[in-house]
Design goal:
18 strands, 9-stranded mixed β-sheet, 5-stranded parallel β-sheet, alpha/beta, single chain
């Protein structure tokens, strides 16, 4: 099958071209782009009139947690460590049926596709452990809806209270014993699960992949972190992890290891080009240099970080050090959306109030790069997607330039970052197939899936309310941990974090 888009404005994001629009055609044959430019003499099975349209690479969500979709809109005004008690509970976690895992993932996939995201990195943590059947269901949902997805097995193999500073000092012994009784993941069993998942799912449908995701260096044993990297190197996949999202985590590095968590990662040999780090807010200048020297990727989760009060990553400094930067929605409970146009808008604005130094502000083109090529590279897919170039996978969106967000039309890149919300999208193409058109997913029936999910929710919510009650016992102590860590003077972190006008 072939698709020809004729006479459109095209933002390719290709090296040297970036966000400067050209006018021309795009020819898609099979799952790949075969020509960008003048293709009018070519025949095709499907022809899209590109006049009055803008074509750009599909957006890449570099960090998402689809399991949180069931908590969308549920929590507010909680710092990360408190919020985790409810979204990733210590006690009483439900084991979801594969069908509910499917519906939850389909909800995220449909919203993503309809709002312009064609590729996602979904870091899937199932409480208390991911089963093969649950993972099968997640992959099936992405295959059915039509996204390109890199899906993880997320793991924590240390007892939860050993992953947060001062928890053992503050939490009463009885509650500590209850938490410890839950145990932790078995590293060897998790690695076997990952090998099975790679054999079964990696490369599925030409657009689905598996990755390893040890949760964070303080949440996993060094042996598991290093074994995960060996697996990633063997299969050429990302090692996806979380580092320095909150000041609590900045304190964690000093309390646990006597160094920053980035320095600890380097000491373990885990800073490599395939390493993707979600967040990187509380980084020092030395951390940034280490990350740049190693060529790692980070994912800037700007909306989630604001909602949790975590802080704002020093993105321009990170970019200048040679770190690849992607954008992510993060969890659907901490950003409450998968919409990457919203993430781009926030990323384009937040840095302007962090410092009066305009050299540290992001341009619209830089934001678009992070949301396309930057995201693709963070998933080890930079040679496959993220830009519109001959030979790459055909992942793109078509937008109506006559729609209100583009009227009057000035700079298309600025319109995409600051004006568009996904409402102007006419087509979403993934792997050479039109997966959504005119706001409708073409491969699944959205109304039926949403109706089925709504039928499941009352029982799920009733059980989760009981789980929340169990974990509310910890909240007083976790609030105290949050306050204690945020009261600590850690001047070395201010170089990368504090607004310039706040320095002396």
């Amino acid at each position: 099958m072939s698709i020809l888009i004729q006479g459109a404005r095209i933002i390719t994001m290709a090296p040297g071209q970036g966000a400067r629009p050209i006018t021309g055609d795009i020819l898609i044959e099979g799952d790949r782009i075969t020509a960008v430019g003048d293709c009018e003499t070519q025949a095709a099975d499907t022809v899209i009139d590109g006049r009055g349209k803008l074509v750009m690479p599909g957006l890449v969500n570099g960090h998402m947690h689809s399991p949180e979709a069931l908590y969308k809109g549920r929590y507010d005004n909680m710092p990360l460590e408190v919020w985790m008690l409810y979204a990733y509970p210590i006690l009483g976690a439900q084991t979801l049926s594969p069908r509910l895992a499917y519906l939850r993932t389909a909800l995220c996939a449909m919203e993503s596709l309809k709002s312009g995201t064609t590729c996602v990195t979904d870091d899937v943590y199932e409480s208390p452990n991911q089963t093969p059947e649950q993972l099968d269901a997640v992959f099936q949902a992405y295959e059915d809806v039509g996204l390109r997805a890199t899906v993880s097995g997320h793991v924590v193999d240390r007892p939860f209270l050993d992953t947060i500073p001062f928890a053992r000092d503050l939490v009463p012994p009885k509650l500590c014993a209850e938490a410890d009784a839950q145990g932790a993941a078995d590293g060897a069993a998790w690695l076997a699960h990952c090998r099975d998942a790679l054999a079964k799912h990696h490369g599925r449908a030409g657009r689905l992949n598996f990755m390893v995701a040890p949760s964070a260096p303080q949440r996993c044993t060094p042996e598991l972190m290093q074994a995960a990297m060996e697996l990633a190197e063997t299969h050429d996949i990302p090692l996806h992890t979380h580092i320095l999202e909150t000041k609590v985590q900045a304190v964690t590095g000093q309390e646990f290891y006597g160094e920053t968590l980035i320095a600890y990662m380097k000491r373990l040999g885990l800073l490599r080009p395939r390493t993707t780090i979600a967040h990187s807010i509380w980084v020092t200048d030395a951390d940034i240099d280490m990350m740049g020297e190693a060529g790692v990727s980070i994912v800037h989760n700007v909306i989630s970080n604001q909602k949790l009060g975590a802080g704002v990553a020093p993105i321009k400094r990170i970019m200048r050090a040679g770190v690849n930067v992607a954008l992510g929605s993060d969890g659907i409970s901490t950003s409450d959306t998968t919409r990457m146009f919203s993430v781009m808008h926030a990323a384009g604005l937040i840095h302007n109030v962090q410092t009066p130094d305009t050299d540290l502000w992001l341009s619209a083109e830089e934001v678009l790069h992070c949301a396309t090529l930057g995201g693709a590279r963070s998933a080890c897919l930079g040679t496959e997607t993220g830009s519109l170039e001959a030979g790459k996978k055909a992942d793109m969106i078509v937008l109506d330039l006559d729609a209100i967000p583009f009227t009057p039309l000035n700079d298309p890149a600025n319109h995409l970052v600051y004006c568009e919300n996904g409402s102007s999208i006419t087509h979403a193409i993934v792997n050479g197939e039109i997966m959504a058109e005119a706001g409708t997913c073409l491969r699944v029936t959205e109304a039926d899936l949403l109706a089925e999910l709504r039928e499941e929710l009352p029982a799920f919510h009733a059980a989760h309310e009981r789980t929340e009650a169990l974990n509310r016992q910890f909240e007083t102590w976790f609030q105290e941990i949050h306050k204690r860590c945020n009261a600590r003077d850690m001047g070395m972190y201010r170089l990368g974090h504090e607004p310039a006008w706040g320095r002396r």
